[in-house]
Amino acid sequence: MTHDTTDDASNSTDRTETENLADRLRCSITELVTTDPTADHADLHPVGDALADARIVGLGEATHGTREFFQLKHRIVRSLVEEQGLRLFAMEANLPETTALNDYVVYGEGDPAAALDGTHFWTWTTEAVLALVEWLREFNEGRPLDSRVRFHGIDAQYTTGAVEYLDEFLAVADPDLREEVGDDLAATDDSGNITDQYTSDHAPEATERLLDRLETAFEERSETFVSATSARETAMARRCLRVVEQTRERRVARETDGMEAAMLVRDEAMAENLAWALDHTGRDRAALWAHDAHVCRTENIGARVDPAPSLGSHLAERYGDDYYALGFDFLGGPFRAIGIELTPESELSTWSLDEPPADSVTRLFAATGSRFAFLDFDAMGGDERLAEWFAEPRAKRELGAVYYGSDGPSESEDDGQDAHNAVRVLPDAFDGILFVRETTPSRGLSDSDD
C-alpha cells in the first residue's frame, strides 16, 4: 500500500518551527534538476565541488531497491569520471565475481547482464545498474589502458567466485598443487548458497585446510606463480584466497558471537578490500557504491540487531577528511525489497513506508518543497540554529534488502516500520545528504524480478 506523505510531512506538532527551519535549510541546499544520467551536469557542480577533495567518495542509498537513488549515483559517477578524472568504481558486491564486470568495462569482454546476475545480488541486477556498466564501457572504449575506469567489488559473503578463480589460476600456475587441493576446493565452494544463519554454505574443515595449504604456497612460491602467470593475476588469486578467509571469518563470527559480530567482520573486510583495490589498480581515487548503513562514518544500524562499526567508520579512520560519505533519504514512494525474512523463500516485491517520524530529517527536507535536494553539512555555514537542530539525533529513512512490516514473525515493539527509520546525528554519520521526494522501484532485468 502506497501512502501520500506530502501533506503529512508539513503537519508537524510545531508548524512554525518547521517552517522556520525549512526556510533556513532552503538557503543551504542545492536543488537538482533530474535523475536522468544522460542529462547535463550543470546542476551537479555544487555536488562535484563538495566531493572534489575526497579520495574515497561513499555513495549510499536509503534502500537497495530505489531507481532514483541508482540513477543519481550514476549521474555523480559520470561527473566524477568525466570532470574529475576518477578511474576506480567500487561496489558492495562479492569481489571475485566482479572480475567479469571489470573484464567487460575495461576490455569489452563478456555479457554485462550475465555478469551482474553472477554477483548473487538481486539488488544490482537492474536496468539502472546495467546502464551504468554500459556507460563505463562506452567511456573506456578506445582509451589507453591506464586511463580506463576499473570496476571492483569489495564484499566477501560467498566463496564460490574465489574458488573458481583459484582453481583456474592453479591450473596454470601449479597443476600439481591444484590436484592436491582439488577436493578441498570443491568442498569450500558454496555455489552462491547460504546457511540458515545467512552465511556462506561451505564445508568448514575443508575450508580451513585449503586456507592453510594455499597460504603456505603463496608465501613460499609466489615468484614461481608470477613467472607462470603474471604479478597481477597472482595478486588477484591471493586476494581471492583472502576473500575465502574473510567469508569463513564472517560465518564463524555469526555462529559463535551473533549477527553484530558478523556485521563487524563484513564491514572490516570491505574496508580492507577497497584499500587493496586502490593499491592493486594503482588508482588514487574511488567511488564506492553501497548502502547508507555501510558508507556512514559511524555505525551500521541494522534492523533488529545492535549497531556495529560500519565500513565507512573504518574508511574514516584510515582516510580522515579524504573520505566523503553521501547518504540518501526519501519522503515517499514504492521500492523493491524482500518481505519479512531474508531466505530463498522470501517474497521480492514492492513496498512503501508510512509517514516519517516527527522531527525527522525526512520531514524537514520535505517541508522545503524540493523534489531533489543536496545538502553538504559544511555548507550550513554560520547558521547556528540549523546546525543546532542537526546536532541532535534525528531519524531518516534507512532499510536494505529486507522489508519488515507490521505483519512480521512476531508482534514485538521492534516490528513494523520504525525499523526502517534509523536515528543518527546526521553530520557525524554523513558529510552530505541527497533527498528524493518521491521514489519508484528499481527495475529488474528478468521477468521474475519485475
UniProtKB/TrEMBL annotation:
GO biological process entries: response to antibiotic
Disordered, as annotated region: 1-20
Gene3D superfamilies: Biosynthetic Protein domain, EreA-like (biosynthetic domain), EreA-like, domain 2
Superkingdom of origin: Archaea
Alphabetical list of CDD domains matching this protein: Ere-like (cd14728)
Identification of the protein by name: Succinoglycan biosynthesis
Organism per entry: Halomarina oriensis
